[in-house]
């Protein structure tokens, strides 16, 4: 009986593998990977790579200004995302929400804005307010709310309810409970996730310029349209440097917060 079962399991595994391989090859064919164009792409890629070196910056001052604008978009988008996330998290957390239905409603809103990519939000805001950094800031703020609202609310819900009850028993108002009881308890989590979100937003900000939301992404798309591949490479290196510096700063801040959290737990 065991031998028959092992034979069936073995046959089932082989059928699953065969179907997976067939689906993989069929997908390659349908999306055009197995195509003459792919074979010819190597020569075009060689021409592209040769055109990228040495990398240059035709207008370094403009590139620097665009990089600063991308940084400003990321900072402002993160700032407004944090502000609105804190305000909404109070209504999303079950232990603070006036009613459970309000909690589910706010969390549903967060899930919706989180499901829509930042690029789509940027396109919608460009239609609403026009080109420039403003739609980029709004897009990053909305996209940040989807993520930060969720983690802030979960952090508030994990607070020991005895702390809230004790403050209420002393006659503290809801505002005092939030400012003196809840925020100090979640401050480490709050700072850690906010810094992480800024790191994400800086990456997004460099891309949103491609659709006209300001920043260095616009310089990248401008250079690519005129086939100035050496400038494309130069702008790409500037973007890489920005993200690398931001990564180092966020890692340092997160380590500092881990040290503070460890000392607080002791």
From TrEMBL:
It is a multi-pass membrane protein. The keyword Transmembrane helix applies. Its main location: membrane. It comes from the Bacteria. Pfam families: BPD_transp_1. This is Phosphonate ABC transporter, permease protein PhnE. Belongs to the binding-protein-dependent transport system permease family. Residues 67-250 form the ABC transmembrane type-1 domain. PROSITE patterns: ABC_TM1. The gene is phnE. Keywords: Cell membrane, Membrane, Transmembrane, Transmembrane helix, Transport. It is found in: Cell membrane. GO terms for molecular function: ABC-type phosphonate transporter activity. The chain crosses the membrane at residues 14-34, 73-92, 104-131, 137-156, 177-196, 202-221, 233-253. One of its GO terms (cellular component) is plasma membrane.
């Amino acid at each position: 009986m065991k031998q028959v079962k092992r034979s069936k399991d073995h046959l089932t595994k082989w059928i699953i593998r065969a179907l997976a391989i067939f689906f993989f090859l069929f997908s390659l064919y349908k999306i055009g990977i197995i195509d003459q164009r792919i074979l010819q792409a190597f020569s075009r890629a060689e021409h592209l790579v040769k055109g990228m070196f040495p990398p240059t910056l035709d207008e370094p001052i403009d590139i620097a200004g665009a990089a600063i604008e991308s940084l400003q978009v990321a900072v402002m988008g993160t700032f407004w995302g944090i502000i609105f996330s804190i305000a909404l998290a109070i209504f999303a957390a079950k232990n603070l929400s006036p009613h459970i239905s309000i909690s589910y409603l706010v969390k549903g809103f967060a899930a919706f804005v989180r499901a829509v990519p930042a690029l789509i939000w940027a396109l919608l805001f460009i239609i609403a307010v026009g080109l420039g950094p403003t739609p980029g800031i709004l897009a990053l703020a909305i996209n940040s709310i989807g993520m930060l609202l969720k983690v802030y609310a979960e952090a508030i819900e994990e607070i020991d309810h005895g702390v809230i009850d004790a403050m209420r028993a002393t006659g503290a108002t809801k505002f005092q409970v939030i400012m003196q009881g809840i925020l100090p308890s979640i401050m480490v989590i709050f700072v850690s996730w906010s810094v992480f979100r800024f790191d994400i937003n800086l990456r997004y900000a460099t891309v949103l310029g491609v659709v006209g939301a300001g920043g260095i992404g616009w310089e990248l798309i401008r250079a690519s349209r005129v086939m100035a591949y050496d400038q494309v490479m130069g702008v790409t290196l500037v973007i890489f440097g920005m993200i690398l510096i931001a990564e180092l700063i966020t890692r340092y801040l997160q380590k500092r917060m881990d040290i503070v959290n460890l000392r607080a737990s002791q």
